[in-house]
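In the previous chapter we treated chains in isolation. Here, by contrast, the input contains two separate entities that must be folded as one system, with a combined length of 630 residues.
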Amino acid sequence: MVDTSNNLSVPTSPLTAPPTVGKRSSRPGALSRALQNTSVRIGGIVVALMIMIGLAAPFLGAMNPTEINPIARNKLPGAESNKRLDDGTQVKVQHRLGTDSLGRDIYSRVLYGARVSILVGVTVAFISIVIGLLIGVASGYFRWLDPIIMRVMDGLMAIPAILLAIALVSLFRAGLGAVILAITVPEIPRVVRLVRSVVLSVREEPYVEAAITTGTPTLKLLWRHILPNTIAPLIVQGTFICASAILVEAILSFLGIGVPPETPTWGNIMSEGRQFFRLYPHNILYPGIFLGLTVLAVNMLGDGLRDTLDPKMAKRV
Amino acid sequence: MFAFILKRLLATIPVMLIVAVFVFLMLRLTPNDPAAIIAGDTASAEQVAQIRASLGLDKPILQQFVIWFTRLLQGDLGESFFFKKTVASLIADRIEPTLSLSILTILLAISVAVPLGVLAAYKHGTWVDRIVMGFSVMGFSVPAFVIGYVLIYIFSIQLNWLPVQGYQRIGEGVGGWLYRLVLPSLTLAVIYVALIARMTRTSMLEVLGEDYIRTARAKGQSERVVLFRHALRNAAVPIVTVIGIGVALLIGGVVVTESVFTIPGLGRLTVDAVLARDFPTIQAVILLFSFVYVMVNLLVDVAYTFLDPRIRY
């Protein structure tokens, strides 16, 4: 056992405070152990930075990211343009990262783009884990359901993930909701498999069998003894899902089938920049850097969390 | 062996059946009316109803599935809403570029990734290892289209060595065909190399600690023979597995890469079909890609028996 005083003595921030889910659910000290990991630290700092950039975009000198300004089309980074205000006066604005072919400010669009990317990443991870957890527990715990659920999951997993997302997105009217749904569905079978394997191994543990013999109600058994074992692997898996969701969202937007083109997302900026790529390569480069950096950071966070929270999984890959 | 392949082939039937049901239901359970799409915006209600009847969409859903599925088994993938051609002929037109790109990418990726992974495992913990692993994490994080445009910028626009975009059929000359596929396959290979190199390293690290490696070294085998004959051969099963699983990534990457390099393949067709809401084509492409993915992984299972004689089915 790792000493619990470690956690209880420093309740300074919500991150280091003792977990509220109950003592037996996450091993004491697991979180502080994770925070010691270099990969978790670097990844976490960059992710936190991106979230802050997204939230604080209006205060970082970003203008309206959807405002079209025909006289300021295709400006190079650092160029200035005149902007007419509502009262007719003209002001000079600087385009730090240039403008696109509609005169929208790339710097502003890139900053606001962080919002959509992170929102999509986190939402997809959350929804796919909740649904995957429910199905996975049902599949692992109720033997009669297992073969049916697993065959369906096998079928879904036989469809390459991006292709499935592309097909699903075509079924609904373009929008953020459709994109989130389309990215979530292909992730669910992977969560189901993970949860099921944990449940199957835990079910054979003596303490679970003891609980069954003493007549613990099924729901309580699942909640107290089985679910807590899925938390660590799910946190790890959720991080990787988040990274891949951010990537897939950018891919869909880039292909022109994601969120509507006026929405500032990194994929949309790049999609718009394709047309004049030879002359203005920065319209693809800058959002590309932000996107790559964010996904890299989330992946590093996942790698570090896996090494510290889920050592069994770390050995596998 | 033959019995095993037959058994595995039979096992793919339920998987493909579920894919087919899913692909069928996907369209029927969402608010999309193919008849209205074909008829266009100006059609009257009667015209729409007529088209609906001619497509068989007025029948009960189970009967519709049976009709659709029987036709599918006969190789009839239906008619494209948008291109006004049969889906089968569309796919036949587009299959060559995609197949060329995929095969070149797989060959390129394996021939780069396996030596890299072996090297990283051999130099475990050194800067060589760190560079390879760093590249691998990067490969997973930067999307193919960003890599593609960076490569185009460097090699086509700045250096002017390679064409920016386009495709040339293999029948019109192997040189031009290869010349135009260099950048697309490099782009597509990055994520695949990342995946395979990482697994090669992990698998090699495990094997290099075994007694028989020490024995091979003790009897004076050269390091090259130890690494490639003794270690790699025993480390091969997980590597081949990941090559099979990675085909899913490859298929996703094909869609993106073909768009970046304007290659008229199945990936480009998929995007065009989605933009045009051309459902028969979307369905057919998903079925085809899933079938290929399942078959590749079946081949991988068969390959195990050659790689590891201990595995018998």
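The domain at 93-307 of chain B is CATH 1.10.3720.10 (MetI-like fold). Chain B has twelve helices and no strands. Compare these points with the single-chain example from earlier in the chapter.
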